[in-house]
Amino acid sequence: MAETVKDVFDLIQSEDLKMVDMRFIDPFGVWHHFSLSTKEFSEGAFEEGLGFDGSSIRGFQTINESDMILIPDPTSAFIDPFFQVPTLVLICDIYDPITHQAYNKDPRYVSKKAEAYLKQTGIADSAFFGPEAEFFLFNDVAYTSSANTGFYQIDSPEGWWNSGGGGLGGQIPAKRGYFPCPPVDSLQDVRTQMVLMMEQVGMEVEVHHHEVGTAGQCEIDLRFDKMTRMADKLITYKYIVKQVARLNGMSATFMPKPLFEDNGSG
């Protein structure tokens, strides 16, 4: 959607955007954000950055060295497809406000260093990555852990354990969920909503389908890209999957093994 700082401001004007959402990722893969009015957003954000408290982010700074700054990447711009108020999203790099050096715990910086190292070694000019992210869509999730009890319980109408009564049948046996047609695949339309949202923000989607696991295991495949760009796309992918799931009364999880004795997600 944008390549330069000028492109960002042209996009804000042409789409009459009201807010800018600044996003960054922590070492554990959690996306964080804050928003500001487009009236308060200026070119200075791309030069001087915007401050935040690094001590409040797990794995970042101590309280006595908490000040950090975010500098947005204009090439990462997209319009959020979920917010009620038209909002531009910008993915940011993290910098030290004193030295103005890139922050070595910023996962985006780690990715950029890896790309630069690959080129410096002469092995290749670039490398392309195409992760196939799988996930489960559950209709009910409950869990607790306290002094005297601990449990988790997850459920889906597709789960084989729901075949004993009160349903319409057609539940998917364990490890038998690969490529079934509807009505056995009950999530076709939900995945299609996700794909359309991904395309709306500029991502290239190759295919989507039900995966091997029972109880709502799905896969949506993105077209390959360079490392940092692919990482941006993958965190956006997860954001869209979780948002669309929530809008449909479901909970999406990328946990590697949420169901015992069934396929996990890679």
Structure write-up:
With 266 residues, the chain is an alpha+beta fold. It is built from four helices and 14 strands. The strands form four sheets. Strands 1, 2, 3, 4, 5 and 6 form a six-stranded mixed β-sheet that branches. Helix 2 runs antiparallel to helix 4 (227-247) and helix 3 packs across helix 4.
Share of helical residues: 10-25%
CATH class of the largest domain: Alpha Beta
CATH topology of the largest domain: Creatine Kinase, Chain A, domain 2
Which structural class fits the helix and strand makeup?
Answer: alpha+beta
**CATH architecture field of the largest domain:** 2-Layer Sandwich
Q: What's the SSE pattern?
A: HEEEEEEHEEEEHEEEHE
Strand content: 25-35%
Radius of gyration (CA) equals 21 Å
Which parts are unreliable, with pLDDT below 50 for 5 consecutive residues or more?
Answer: none
Number of domains: 2
Shape: globular
Question: How does the major sheet shape up?
Answer: 6 strands, mixed
Number of strand segments: 14
